[in-house]
Amino acid sequence: MKAIKVGLLGIGTVGSGTFNVLRRNQAEIRGRAGRGIEITMVSRRNVALAREIVGDAAQVVADPREIIANPEIDIIVELIGGCGLARELVLEAIAAGKHVVTANKALLAVHGTEIFAAAREKGVMVAFEAAVAGGIPIIKALREGLTANRIEWLAGIINGTTNFILSEMRSKGLDFATVLKEAQRLGYAESDPTFDIEGVDAAHKATIMSAIAFGIPVQFDKAHVEGISQLQATDIKYAEQLGYRIKLLGIARRRSDVAGGGIELRVHPTLIPTQRLIANVEGAMNAVVVQADAVGTTLYYGKGAGAEPTASAVIADLVDITRLHTADPDHRVPHLAFQPDAMNNTPILPMAQVLTSFYLRLRVADEAGVLSRITTILAEHDISIDAVLQRESAEGERQTDLIILTHETQEGRMNTALAQMQALPTVLAPIVRLRKEELA
Ligand code: HSE
């Protein structure tokens, strides 16, 4: 059978990885896909740079629309990124009846509903394994491997940049700004690192996983997004003394204790018990834990970025499409795991309704009755204390750090208690509040 023809819109790091891996492993890939997969066209504004990557093995054009317009091309791989031109081109490719592979998490988290509806209408596939956790086949696992299960929650380290920064802050005791600069120098963080460090990238990925796990539409606008730029080395140290590591987690959790059900969708720095496997995922690595009713807990670990790890996911999608493109669209794996008529509208809960435990650090006057006033406020809000740590005051110092770990409570209740604690004259600085998850 003749090879399936692929066009790459954009060829940079991931595109060149895809090109190289496809060429290197072509015999095995053909054996698995049932026919060859060939990149025959690539686009890049700087045509000369693209030629350096592909030589004369593929036609290089400056205008991506030339690729979409070519009737010979069966699959479009979108590697441009962002929600502007990439959205237009993906919709145009779908309208032209092409299958699409994309690594673009922002595009799917924000415009997924529109894109999947257009794809269904045209009977084409949109595959996106590379959009979440790079080389880890987490989309495949959630959508197909765990298809027998009712998924209860998932929690992932799904941004390598922030995990690298947190690992360095912990192991070297450095502050955030110093480590960020070092991460930029080493190429782990972009020159504009905002999307990574403020949790946006992780929230895009968590949004996509929540849709597949629970059969809800992608709703990035409802995700709670909090990054690590305000995190202090002091809190990493105190957390460690209490047996916890701080990780930026993307969490999606089904809640059946609220009337009509609800979904928590949140990204924030989180204390995790050090003995959990995921707490020991260090450097730029990614990992996702999934809790499901039949299989129990499963953990997926690997590289979340990079040329060949991401290419691994892109090519897996190319192979899937190659196998399935002649199948009746109704017999393919649904884009978001559930058949369109089986999707549901379980609401994403507002943050005030989220159930979690807390780490609090209070700078307090070191005098009689301070601790009791604070614990009284917590008790009045029915918030149970799990552990307390008070740093011994230095000689002559009249203030100290008080660290409190709580049991699970509702975030809204904690907000009220925090406001009251903050108003105490003996609380001398803004209270640091972090969330804690046992992931048991
Ligand atoms: N910038 C991402 C990260 C990789 O640091 O993990 C691509 O999503």
From TrEMBL:
Residue ranges of every copy of the ACT domain listed in the record: 359-435
Gene3D superfamilies listed in its UniProt record: 3.30.70.260, Dihydrodipicolinate Reductase, domain 2, NAD(P)-binding Rossmann-like Domain
Annotated pathway: Amino-acid biosynthesis; L-threonine biosynthesis; L-threonine from L-aspartate: step 3/5; Amino-acid biosynthesis; L-methionine biosynthesis via de novo pathway; L-homoserine from L-aspartate: step 3/3
UniProt-listed InterPro entries: ACT-like_dom_sf (IPR045865), ACT_dom (IPR002912), Asp/hSer_DH_NAD-bd (IPR005106), HDH (IPR016204), HDH_cat (IPR001342), HDH_CS (IPR019811), NAD(P)-bd_dom_sf (IPR036291)
Pfam families: ACT (PF01842), Homoserine_dh (PF00742), NAD_binding_3 (PF03447)
EC number(s) per entry: 1.1.1.3
One term of GO molecular function: homoserine dehydrogenase activity
Keywords, alphabetical: Amino-acid biosynthesis, Methionine biosynthesis, NADP, Oxidoreductase, Threonine biosynthesis
Similarity comment: Belongs to the homoserine dehydrogenase family.
Protein name, per record: Homoserine dehydrogenase
